[in-house]
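Lecture 7, part 2: worked example. A protein chain together with guanosine-5'-diphosphate.
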Amino acid sequence: LDLTVEDKPEDLVMRNPIVTIMGHVDHGKTTLLDSIKNTNVVAGEAGGITQAIGAYRIKTEDGRRITFIDTPGHEAFSEMRARGANVTDIVILIVAADDGVMPQTEEAIDHAKLANVPIVVFVNKCDKPGADPERVKSELMKYGLLAEEYGGDIPFVLGSAKAKTGLKELQDTLLFIAEMQDYKANPNKLASGVVLEAHLDKAKGPVASILVKDGTLEIKDMIVAGTTYGNIKLIENEHAKKVLKAGPSKPVVIYGLNEVPSAGDKFIVINDEKTARSIAEAQAEKKLNAERQKNNS
Ligand code: GDP
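Predicted complex, written out as structure tokens:
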């Protein structure tokens, strides 16, 4: 489903880069996300991030923002990509300096290459006695990831998620890439984006965490997300605060869908209930047929 309309250049404005951390289990994804989260509480949000919604925004020292996807795991990531939902702009490949390249490191490299997005390598656990960041650099050469000092174009940041070193350099690197890539979106149109996670709340009904990729989502919008649809009754941000709208690169929680969508589903605003329902039904039919075909083969 694609209702893309060409944007006029004057409608496009800068948006935050969207970043995903990938790497082998235990190499420090969770620790890195936590360290970044805790050192960059968005101003005016003294309580910090109060609800896990699959993604969150941080404010860097110079006031710019970065949207981090709370790593959904490689499986969910490839699922999203398979369905054409390119959620991320940049991949941080985290590799533990005392362990080096491991099977899921390779997987992460494949994902990033297929998604065709810039990679930043964060060589983690450099605080450990057995750390050998140079070995990580030479191992990654075999995968075509050549460090800048070796004439390549892959930024390598050495640090420790636990000791909170290298984090500033990592953020600066992300912001530099964002500047070069010039990520833009048009906030003056109906929203579109992707579902990050969803579940059924006993009291509130279907709850979906979504990432707005383009346009602006507004309360009362009628959206279609995969095979589900509905009027948005409530929008909340990662601080569990009610908001009336959400622009590009913003992750929010929405309430009001008729059913629970799947992670990786794309969503669009269709401000007409009949059309929304028929698109959702058509997509449900398509999904059913695809499943039948899969079962028959
Ligand atoms: P994940 O599986 O990739 O999310 O890895 P975790 O963030 O859960 O980290 C796995 C283990 O490595 C935990 O015990 C962390 O405390 C530890 N760890 C993560 N980063 C560092 C680091 O920079 N230095 C040290 N020494 N330990 C770390």
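The longest strand covers residues 192-201. The first helix runs from residue 29 to 39. Keep this in mind for problem set question 3.
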